[in-house]
Amino acid sequence: MTVSRCSVEPTHSERRVRLARAMGRAIADFSMIADGDRILCAVSGGKDSYVMHDLLVDLARRAPVRFEVLAVNIDQGHPGYPGERLESYMAERGYAFRMVREDTYSIVQEKIPAAKTKCSLCSRLRRGILYRLARELGCNKIALGHHRDDVIVTLMLNLFFSGQLKAMPPKLVCDEGDVIVLRPLVYCAEDDIAAYARERGYPILPCTLCGSQPNLQRKVVNDLLGDLEARHPGLKQNMLAALRNVRPSHLLDAELWQKLDLAVARSLDGGPVEGPHEELQLVSLDRLRDAG
Ligand code: SF4
Asked: Quick one: which atom of ligand 1 is closest to the CA of 211?
């Protein structure tokens, strides 16, 4: 499916509706929210998590399903961290909010050499704290602000550098099985989020205080996709569409074929498979046996 880009800039409220719809679709598609949920909304102080929190709080007010949203920010001990700006923002609006101070900065500084990227360890430590906080605060779910562009960049990174065909799970249960991580913004475009955040004037906290080197591979893929999108508008949206339209029979994962009980891929009219653009259906072993 090719998605054409609208040349007229949406108004603020149109953009909000678009983001809310995209989030609502992801929540529905993956049954992310159930009655009685208490969701820890991880607010980093970046644009993505502000927008996610805003939309989730609004949804909690309107949705027929009753659920709670608790915003949490972790002050990881970066020198000069201006967490009070986030605290004031939450307090002024009466949002349920906790600021938690945990010095992971010192640990990361000690373990990772100065010239290396620190994000991997830093995020792992933060994720561990979030799981612990969810349990302590009685939350059964954690919402993270990853959006469409994070998903497709991760897909490309895994494809190019890890030899794996995977992006990011929209919904993931932790190893202990008691907390579920949600990514309600997986259908939301970063451009929309950024424009909406600018219009709302959230007090964005800087993300350069840690002094970490940027992840070079992520930057390369980001730039590549940015260039491609500029030349082929709608390309990113098509990549998202592709992730929602997977043809296992056209992938070379023998284990997956076995799991899905596939014997052969066949064209829809029953004829031979002739080319990469041919519509295919999956033929299970059972169906082949039934057909004699
Ligand atoms: S940019 Fe800094 S704070 Fe953010 S994940 Fe990387 S190391 Fe941690």
From this structure: 2
CA distance 282 to 249: 6
Band of residue 2 on the pLDDT scale cut at 50, 70, 90:
very low
Banded pLDDT at 138 (limits 50, 70, 90): very high
Distance (Å, whole) CA 190 – CA 73: 21
**pLDDT, tens digit, for every residue of 80-105?**
999 999 999 999 999 999 999 999 99
CB-based contact 147:186 (threshold 8 Å): yes
Q: Which of 72, 69, 79, 204 is nearest to 140 (CA)?
A: 69
For 231-253, what is each residue's pLDDT tens digit? 999 999 999 999 999 999 999 99
Question: How many whole angstroms from 123 Cα to the centroid of ligand 1?
Answer: 7
- DSSP count for the chain of H helices, then E strands: 11, 8
d(CA 27, CA 49): 16
- Nearest-CA residue for atom 2 of ligand 1: 210
Distance CA 137, CA 147 (A): 25
Q: Are strands 141-143 and 180-182 parallel, antiparallel or unpaired?
A: parallel
Tokens of 251: 């992938």
Our measurement of the distance from residue 105's CA atom to the centroid of its chain's CA atoms, rounded to an integer in Å, reads 24
Index of the ligand 1 atom closest to the CA of residue 104? 8
Q: State if residue 121 touches ligand 1 by the CB under 6 angstroms criterion.
A: no
Q: What is the pTM of this model?
A: 0.88
